[in-house]
Amino acid sequence: MVSSFFGRLLFLISAIIFCVLQSILWMGDGGILDTQYIKEEVAKQKAENEKLAERNRILKAEVADLKSGTEAIEGHARLDLGMIKEGETFFLVTAPPQQTTHQTP
Known about the structure:
The structure is a single chain. The protein is mainly alpha-helical. It has 2 domains: 1-28; 31-86. Helices cover 70% and strands 0% of the residues. The chain has 3 helices and no strands. The chain has helices at residues 2-27, 32-68, 71-81. The radius of gyration is 35 Å and the shape is elongated.
C-alpha cells in the first residue's frame, strides 16, 4: 500500500512540475508566444525601414539635383512659390463653380 501511494504522489508531483514548466515555456518571458510577437514586430519594423530607405534615396537624389543645376531650383520655384519668369504671362484656370441642388423635404 505504501509503494502505490508513494508512486501516485510522485506521479502527481511530476505532473504539476511538468504543467508549471509548460506554462513557463509558452507564456513566460522569452517564451514561445513572446518570441512570436517579437518576430512580428521585427517584420513590421523592417517594412517601415524599407519605406524610409526609399524615401531617403529619393531625397538624396533631389538634393544632388538641386546642388548640380538650376533647372530643379527653377521647377521648385515655379511649383512651390508660384514664380514666373520675366516676360511670361500667368494664366490661372479654375473649374466652373458647382451648382448645388436643394432638395425639398
